[in-house]
Amino acid sequence: MWIANQRIDAAATGGWIDSEDPATEEVIGRVPAGGAADVERAVAAARDASDGWRYTAANDRAELLHEAVARSTEQHDELVELLTREQGKARPEQEEEAEWALTSLRYYAELGRNGSGRVIPSGEPRSQLNMVLKEPYGVVGAIVPWNYPLLLLAWKLAPALAAGNTVVIKPSELTSLVTLRWIESCFDHFPPGVINVVTGTGAEAGEALVAHPDVRVIAMTGSVATGQRIASVAAPMMKHLHLELGGKDAFVVGPDADLETAADALAYAALLNAGQVCTSAERVLVPAGMRDGFAEAVTAKVADLRLGHGLDAGTDLGPMAADRFRDKVTAHVEDAVSRGARVVTGGGRPDRPGWFFEPTVLVDVDDDMVIATEETFGPTIPISTYDRLDEVIGRVNASTMGLGATLRSSDPLAIKRFYEGVKVGTVWINDPLTDNYAGPFGGMKMTGGGRELGPEGLETFLETKHVHWDFSQDRKDWWFPYGAGEDDV
Ligand code: NAD
Is the CB of 310 under 6 A from ligand 1? Predict the structure, then answer.
């Protein structure tokens, strides 16, 4: 673990968690299984550093973030290799993750220099000043998943630090090695206690962080179930929660779409990171008359993709991150097949070591099948049909989650109706899964409502305070007793 710029080599209770390469099933390292005592120590360090960091000049904070970018760039190859070994996806995707993470650091380093707040009109403009201040909360708990461990950490860490908060990180138990390596090798020039890492399970280390009274903000990305648990633990303390939870994104093929390029776009949107992306295309809606041609085009794209170790040149799809995630994918496929869906390609586990699952295309999928309602988080492409574009918005909105949605079309009227009608945080027209640092990312409904990136991603780590300042200490005539003024008259 990493507390007050010191490497902590064992948890208070002495337990350990193995980290495995999901493509080979080999143990590649281990991290301490931290718990409440370790969280206590990390939060104390973060609290002690809090005042000093809050009053560090924003420009100095920005320079420290830029220095972390420079160090990360020097360590790029080593970090990407470890990230690939621990997380699994193909190397080009890991390269992108590492680069995007640094862009986030650069973006918030600069945004943080601007500060914020405003002066508003006073009741007595000559003798009063009214200000809206934006202040750091203090200690932020950052709880991170395994699918983009550096990127999703950077989206929390960079704005939290730029806003003047100190941070305690709880990485996923599946990707703690790379998180620790990144922080200890690229951020140890920050003042001690400003950034801390406690490794451990969600139930032990994660929950202790959420329950700690000195942690005023929990910024968490993960599943809806974990978000609900965190919300219930945090509720008695009225903590500020920033939750980025699961999705069930729809990919809609418009009647005017070109089938070949739509199939290419879908293969990318559904199979990036073996489908383990919160914004993966998890439901596909295609005009009934185009179904067979489209399914054929998608199957042809998928059949050419190569499964392999993320570090091997030519690998398109790595393994799933843990064996247990394959069970969920299998259950979703089996439920669909038992209720009338047909597997066109894939559907099983290839005969090789590692937690691979074949890219799987299904047709005849109904909206009430589990694969169309619950997050699968695997390499599946379930295809359903529609008769009229009018019905699509209601079907997209039938999900309890609302992260993103894609439409392939060039019809401006259809596009406008679509982006106005769908209840999701991001709408992609033709170009799925493309993020923009200036554009807030997050979801509606049970996806949690948090927003990362853009000014909104900084704002979430700032608390608002209104200061009303009267320059004089004069008595006001509306104070008690009420009768006094009338008697004078
Ligand atoms: P998860 O919910 O299992 O775990 C996420 C983090 O929460 C981990 O660090 C885990 O240890 C921790 N945690 C678990 N239980 C906890 C508890 N009781 N208290 C505190 N912390 C706890 O999710 P995962 O499997 O790591 O990630 C996949 C999920 O993340 C998917 O549902 C995916 O959609 C979602 N996700 C969402 C976004 C987004 O921006 N909306 C982005 C990526 C992933």
Answer: no
